[in-house]
Amino acid sequence: MAEFNLKSLKAEEFINHEEILETLEYAEANKHNAELIEAILEKAKPKRDEAGTHSVGLTHREASVLLACDIPELNEKMFALAKQIKQDFYGNRIVMFAPLYLSNYCVNGCTYCPYHYQNKNICRKKLTQEEIEKEVIALQDMGHKRLAIEAGEDPVNNPIEYILESIDTIYKVKHKNGAIRRVNVNIAATTVENYRKLKDAGIGTYILFQETYHKESYEKLHPTGPKHNYAYHTEAMDRAMEGGIDDVGLGVLFGLELYKYEFAGLIMHAEHLEAVHGVGPHTISVPRLKRADDIDPSKFDNGISDEIFKKIIACIRIAVPYTGMIISTRESAKVRGEALELGISQISGASRTSVGGYTEKERPHDSEQFDVSDQRTLDEVVGWLMEMGHIPSFCTACYREGRTGDRFMSLCKTGQILNCCHPNALMTLAEFLEDYASPHTKELGYAMIEKELGNIPKEKVREIAKSNIDAIRNNNKRDFRF
Ligand code: SAM
């Protein structure tokens, strides 16, 4: 039997089945333990000193107790704490992105994904470089600056050279005032050498969803193909970091396994990255299983309600306070709106989950990876965010300024985010308003910028931001950043 060891590089030691089972027992035994739950909430509270605001986060055991807690008043406190942590570390900025599906060729047999190789219903497509250019122009014309590229796993059709060439194409497209300034990558687990190539290609975050941390279920859900190998998949982030990628994004596909098990595994994975590499995950995504071509979510037993989903988000926010959290258009506008209050800091907008979907007038369904719930335009999403008091941010400055890994975390910890991310968000919002927004969104946006400039603590920074925004509005200048 594998021994639990967060510092180990072996999947079954740092994501340890017995430790997760004991954690779940401990959490269940303490779900009414008000004293312990109060103490855990107290520990996680942000504390201020002269160096800034800090939160120590929580261990997987502590976080699991919060998730299990069934005392309504303490659950309320938990939601309030999640909101406070979000506000203290991320403020009211929400980073915007869109997925770009390059290819749905896939050799894996994942039972929940319509791209599985046995699915003969869907039309298989792989974008050529010319088609990628067209998709990128369509995305730039909406106002996107940050993409997450997605591809199935297929060493013949989608080799690493194809992914690298596509990244290069994406960065080179300059259409009107548009530019893609950060490309995040969501492709299958690969080798250290390939991660190094991705790093050299200038990617932002490497994202890989674990799908499930439960090894036995993992092997059943991935019966065939390279993804079947649980250890290779689970150890991917360590290889990515060894290859020089500082920013990695974790995620679980909720609905496949028991959510409490997944949650404990996810927090353990974050603890492991921190213990081994000195820096936790840059982002955590919270996808839920959705209907898709030949996939019926009701065939999977572990679907979760919106209430539980929100509690999971709040508990992740409290447990890993410096990690960005992402929600996609798998979720409805209503759920997304509520999740933003509980810790989400990044959302996609106007997504098309089919290969080549952005250049089609109608939303195509023939090669979609999953049904999109939130089908609004980017302009609508941006306007909606501002109506709720959030600042939509198209900022990509951090990694372009070399603030990745622990350097980004230290920005969070010292509160410098307000002198850096805040003006960057306002300047990139001004670009969006000038180049892509409807008159209504533009009006809302400039009113928000006017008000939010006042929240930049350093006078000098405030003045520079103001003058840059004037240059964006009046002199067609672009791409300022702190
Ligand atoms: N092929 C890559 C891999 O093996 O990790 C990743 C790209 S895949 C296009 C992106 C993610 O979509 C998967 O990791 C999975 O979590 C999610 N996904 C697959 N089927 C889904 C479904 N039916 N509903 C919601 N999300 C799904």
Distance between the termini: 50 Å
Q: Please tell me how large the radius of gyration is.
A: 22 Å
> How many strands in all?
11
Biggest sheet, in brief?
9 strands, parallel
> SS-based structural class?
alpha/beta
- What do the pLDDT scores average to? 96
**Shape label:** globular
Which segments are poorly predicted (pLDDT under 50) over 5 or more consecutive residues?
none
Q: Can you list the ligands bound to this structure?
A: S-adenosylmethionine
In what range is the share of β-strand residues?
A: 5-15%
Helix fraction bin: 40-55%
H/I helix tally: 20
Description:
Helix 2 packs across helix 12 (259-277), helix 5 crosses helix 13 (306-319) and helix 6 (129-142) packs across helix 7 (160-172). 47% of the residues lie in helices and 10% in strands. The chain is globular, with a radius of gyration of 22 Å. Strands 3, 4, 5, 6, 7, 8, 9, 10 and 11 form a 9-stranded parallel beta sheet that branches. Strands 1-2 form a two-stranded antiparallel sheet. It is of the alpha/beta class and 482 residues long. The mean pLDDT is 96. The protein starts with 10 loop residues before the first helix and ends in a 7-residue tail after the last helix. 51% of the residues are buried. It binds S-adenosylmethionine. S-adenosylmethionine binds at residues 112-113, 150, 152-153, 186-188, 208-209, 211, 227, 253, 287, 289-290, 292, 295, 330, 369-370.
